[in-house]
Amino acid sequence: LPICPNGSINCQVSLEELFDRAVKLSHYIHSLSSDIFNEFDERYAQGRGFIAKAVNGCHTSSLTTPEDKEQAQQIHHEDLLNLVLGVLRSWNDPLVHLASEVQSIKEAPETILWKAVEIEEQNKRLLEGMEKIVGRLHSGEVGNEIYSPWEGLPSLQLPDEDSRLFAFYNLLHCLRRDSHKIDNYLKLLKCRLIHDNNC
Amino acid sequence: SPPEKPTIIKCRSPEKETFTCWWKPGSNGGHPTNHTLLYSKEGEEKVYECPDYKTAGPNSCYFDKKHTSFWTIYNITVRATNEIGSNVSDPHYVDVTYIVQPDPPVNITLELKKSVNRKPYLVLTWSPPPLADVRSGWLTLEYELRLKPEEGEEWETIFVGQQTQCKMFSLNPGKRYIVQIHCKPDHHGSWSEWSPEMYIQIPTDFRVKD
């Protein structure tokens, strides 16, 4: 699909097209995140009661994101876009380490390894796309403030297998959760900004 | 004796805005027994009691919008108490994001049509369940339809994604078909029940003219 059809000079991808691509990507990333979590859960977490421990929250818990429809609809779209950017940025670092550390899991199946790498790459692409969208909507400025650091690398390298597996479980649980939030918020924003809440 | 411990059997959200949990009491130990549902939410120490025991009927707890949060793990237990003592169910961990089961689609229409090149086909249209807010994008539904000749055994099931209409070609002239549709959230949750059966009689002359 040529970006600039027959010779027009200063053409841009439309905001609608940018949102379409972002939603397709966020949907894909969440599907991968769901699959990798389910696969890990089935193979390594059965009967270990990890879910009870997973309630200590995720490294992005400090980001106050909407938790129900009313909150999601009341928040200004600029704030919601910046939150999406902040969550995406906050996952750059852990996804780099997930893709490498997951190789150390005993008999980790190829599908888990491949998905970890794929999610890392696609997350970067989505972040770039979202920065374009925010740049388009807020005429050039892209706020950089929202970010939540991740300090979980040591726990992915613990000698005790149960603790290490729980660290992976919790990271994948949080990835599934946050990627679903991002996908949901982008679908909301697309309906609000492109289709005037009439999807 | 004290009552047996109850069992939490199911939690369901019909529209990703509220949810309900149901439990099954154990034996009451021969004494009048009452049940209390208690829950805590991820990241909070506080324990809450069920906000509404009535709306969803006996042995249930209904969480309205104000009491429903997504992407948050609820730790739910039910305690049975009689004059001798009490017993508590095993904890039930729920994230409402993953328990959405919508109602079936509505307003299903079936219409026989002929296209320009005289190829006959059937057009199906439907609407999302009324409770589901798909317009705002909060909930995205996917649909699947199934059909079979009335006397046939095997259903043909077709996944149609997020669209709410579908064209069907190559139906057998003279046959009477049964059609049903159901839906599910785009990622998590479960399929709705099938919509009520709809019937369509394909005319005998429903044939491609050479």
UniProtKB/TrEMBL annotation, chain A:
Keywords: Disulfide bond, Hormone, Secreted, Signal. InterPro entries: 4_helix_cytokine-like_core, Somatotropin/Prolactin, Somatotropin_CS. It is found in: Secreted. The keyword Secreted applies. PANTHER family: PROLACTIN, SOMATOTROPIN,PROLACTIN. Belongs to the somatotropin/prolactin family. This is Prolactin. It comes from Willisornis vidua (Xingu scale-backed antbird). The gene is PRL.
